[in-house]
Amino acid sequence: MKDILRHFLPLAWRNLWRNPRRTVITLIVVSVGLWSVLIFNSFMGAWSQASKDTSLKLLIGSGQIHAVGFMDDPSIDALMTPPAGALKAALDAPEVRFWTSRLVVPGVVQSEYKTLPVSILGVDPEAEREISSIPGKVVEGRYLSGVADDGVVLGLHLAERLKTGLGRRVILMSQYVDGTLAERSFDVVGLFDADQQTEDFYAFTGRAAGATFLGLEDQISQVVISLPDEGDVEATFATFAQAAPELDVRTWKELNLFLATSDSFMKGFIYIWLGVVFSLMAIGIVNTQLMAVFERTHEFGLLLALGMKPRLVLLMVSLESAMLIGTGVLVGALIAAGTIWVFYDGIDLSVFAQALEMFQGGQMLFPKYDVPSFFIFGLIIWVLGIIVALWPARRAARLSPVEAMRRAT
Amino acid sequence: MDNIVSCQGVSKVFGTGELAVHALRRVDLEIMPGDFATLAGPSGSGKTTLLNMIGALDKPTDGRISIQGQTLSDLSKAQLSELRLNRVGFVFQAFNLIPVLSASENVEFVLELQGCDAGERRDRARVALKEVGLEGMEDRRPSALSGGQQQRVAVARALVSRPGIVLADEPTANLDSKSAMELVDLMARLNGDLGITFVIGTHDPNVMKRSKRHIEMIDGKIKNDKIS
After folding, report:
1. Helices A297-305 & A371-397 angle (0-180, nearest 10)
2. Half-sphere exposure of A89 toward its Cβ, with a 13 Å CA cutoff?
3. Which domain holds residue B186?
4. Cβ of B55 under 8 Å from any chain A Cβ?
5. How far is the CA of B207 from the CAs of A223, B37, B176, B212, in angstroms?
6. What is A177-235 written as a DSSP string?
7. Minimal Cα–Cα distance from B228 to chain A, Å?
C-alpha cells in the first residue's frame, strides 16, 4: 500500500493540474467555504464572548447565590446571612476569582417631579470594582466610596426622567422587614452610562448605608461570584450548592436565559452554516470530479485495459479528490488565520452602539484563533469531500475498458 | 507445441432482436507461440472485436477463449485484470499513453501495477525503450514525442511486462508511411529476435506483407488463415 501511494500520489497531483482552471475553481470553492466557516465561527465566538462579557460583567457575574424564594420575589423577606463556614471556604477557593455580597430590594426613587420604580442595590464599592463594570461607567460625579457611603449613584436616563442630577437629593422608598414604609433622602453623587434598561432599573448605595436605611443588621440578598474566563462554571457552582444546600445557587446560564440560549444557539448556528456551506461545496466537488472523470473516460478505459484493477482506479481518483480538497482546506485555513490576525486587536463596533445595547452586545469584538475548530472543521470538510467524491470515483472504477475506450474515441 | 490463444466457436452479438449485430460468428482460432499474425479484413469484419475478446477486454456471447490454458469465462473481473496485466500486451491505434507521465514512467506504470520495485522498474523500462529505439527520450512527455515515437513507447509498454502475446489494433493507422514502416520493422524484429508473439489487426498492406501468418476476416468469420 505504501508503495502504491508513493507511486500514485505524484500521479494524482499531476492529474490535478491537467485542467488548472477546473482545479483552481474547486480549490476556491473549498477554501472559501472553509474560510467562511472558520471566520463565521471566530466572529460568532467573539460576538458571543463580547455579549457574555458585557452582560455578566454588568451585574450578574458568573453566577449568584440567594435565599430560596428571592428569584420569585426579590423582596426584603428573602434575605440570607453572609457566607460562613463551608460556603465561605468554597467561595475563597482558588477556582473563584472574586466574590462579593449585595443587598437588593425593590423600591421607588422620588424626585421633586417624579416617582419611578427601581431596584435598590446596597454594594461594597471596592469589591464591585472587581466584579462589575458599573463603577467604570460613572460619567458624572463619582462612584461610591465605601460600604457606609450613603450617597446614591443613578443611571443617566433615570436621572433625566426624574429631572434630577448630580448634587441633588432624591428619596428612596422601600419596606422594612415588618412591612412598614422605609424612606430616606440620599444625595446623588454619581451618574453612570450603561444600557438604558440598566440605567432605568438600578439605584446604588453603600451596603451598610442600605442596611441602615432598611433597619437591617448584616443580612444580604445575594452573593455574586466571578470565575476566571476559563473556569468550569457548572462544576464550581456545584461545590457551592453542596456547601449551602439550603440556598438557591444559580449560574449565569440560569440567571440570564436569553444569553445562555443565544450562546448555544450561536454554536448550533455554526454547524447549520457548515451544513449549508458543505452542501454547496459538495455540489461543486461532485460536479468538477464528474467532469474530470467524464473527460478522462478514455484514459480510465486504457488503465483498466492495461490490467489496473478497478479498486486501484477508485483509489487513484479518490487520491486526486483527497489532494484537491486537502489543498483547498489548507489554503482556506491559512486565509482564515490571516483574516483573524488582521482583526486580532479588535473590531470597533461603537458606531452601532445603540443597536448593540438591544442585543446586549459588546462594542468591541475580539476574534480569536480557535485552534481545535481549524482542525475539526477542516477535517469534516476534507472527509465529507472525499466521501462525496467517491461517487465519481466509483463511476470511473466501474467502467468497462472496451466501452470506455470506444466511447471517448 | 501448446497454443497461446485458443478460440472455439466464439460469437459476439451486440444488441438484441432486429437490431442485433453479429460481430463474430463461431470463430475458431489458435495462436501459436512466436506467431507474427495479421488479422485483416474490411471495416466491420470483426477484427477489433476478436482482438478485444482475445485480450480479455470483452466477453463473447458464445464460445470459449483460453489464454495459455486459462479459460477466460472462468475468471472474475479482478482475475481478468491480472491476466491482462501479466499475459497480454496491448498496442492501440491512438497510442494511448498517459499524458502526465514521461515515456519511461508510462512504461514503468505496468511494472508498478505488477508490484516491481523502483530500481527494477527503471532498469526494465530503460531496456524496453532502448529495444524500441527511444534511448535518451526516457524523460519526454508524450506531447514532446512524434506519433511514431509515441507508438514505440506503447510497444515498449506492451513488451516490458514480458507478456505471452502482444495484441495490436491498427497500430499504424495514425502514423505516416515512414513511421508505419519503422514500427512494422520494429515489431518484426522483436518477433524474430525475442520470439514475442504478435497479433495485429490491420488494413495496412505493408504490415500484411511483413507478417508470417495472414488471417482474413469477413462478416465476423475467418475466411482465410494462411502461413507464408
Report:
1. 70
2. 6
3. 5-227
4. yes
5. 101, 10, 13, 10
6. TTS-EEEEEEEEEEEE---HHHHHHEEEEEHHHHHHHHT-SS-BSEEEEE--TT--HHH
7. 31
Nearest to B166 by CA among B128, B113, B136, B223: B128
Asked if residues A65 and A240 have their Cβ atoms less than 8 Å apart, the reply is: yes
Residue A64 CB partners (closer than 8 Å, separation 6+): A222, A223, A224, A225, A250, A255
Regions of chain B with pLDDT less than 70: 1
Whether A401 contacts B57, CB under 8 Å: yes
Domain count, chain B: 1
Put simply, the answer to whether A308 touches B98 (Cβ < 8 Å) is no
Predicted local distance difference test score (pLDDT) of residue A360: 58
Q: Looking at residue A409, what is its pLDDT?
A: 43
- CATH code where residue B167 lies: 3.40.50.300
Residue of A nearest to B157 (CA): A306
CB distance B57–A305 less than 8 Å? yes
How many Å lie between the alpha carbon of B216 and the closest alpha carbon of chain A?
A: 23
Q: What are phi and psi of A153, to 5 degrees?
A: -110, 125
Contact A307 B86 (CB under 8 A): yes
Does an H or E element contain B24, and which?
A: strand B21-31
Q: Inspect the interface and report whether the beta carbons of A305 and B86 lie closer than 8 Å.
A: no
pLDDT averaged over 10-residue windows placed end to end, chain A, 409 residues: 74 85 90 91 83 82 92 89 92 92 94 93 93 92 93 95 93 90 93 90 94 90 87 88 93 86 79 84 83 84 90 88 93 95 83 63 76 90 88 86 73
pTM comes to 0.72
Q: Which residues in chain A are contacts of B83 at CB distance < 8 A?
A: 307
Q: What is the pLDDT of residue A355?
A: 63
Closest-CA distance of chain A to residue B129, Å: 18
Q: Which residues of B touch A302 (CB under 8 A)?
A: 92, 96, 98
pLDDT digits (tens, 9 = 90+) for A147-203: 999 999 999 999 999 999 999 999 999 998 888 999 999 999 999 998 888 899 999
Please name the member of B85, B94, B101 whose beta carbon is closest to the beta carbon of A306. B85
Which ipTM value was assigned to this complex?
0.88
User: Residue B80's pLDDT is what?
Assistant: 92
Mutate to test the interface with B, among A306, A308, A315, A316 (most CBs of B within 10 A): A306
Cβ of residue A9 closer than 8 Å to a chain B Cβ = no
Amino acid letter, residue B118: A
Cell 483547498: give the residue.
A328
**Taking CB atoms and an 8 Å limit, are A18 and B100 in contact across chains?**
yes
B5-14/B21-31 β-pairing: antiparallel
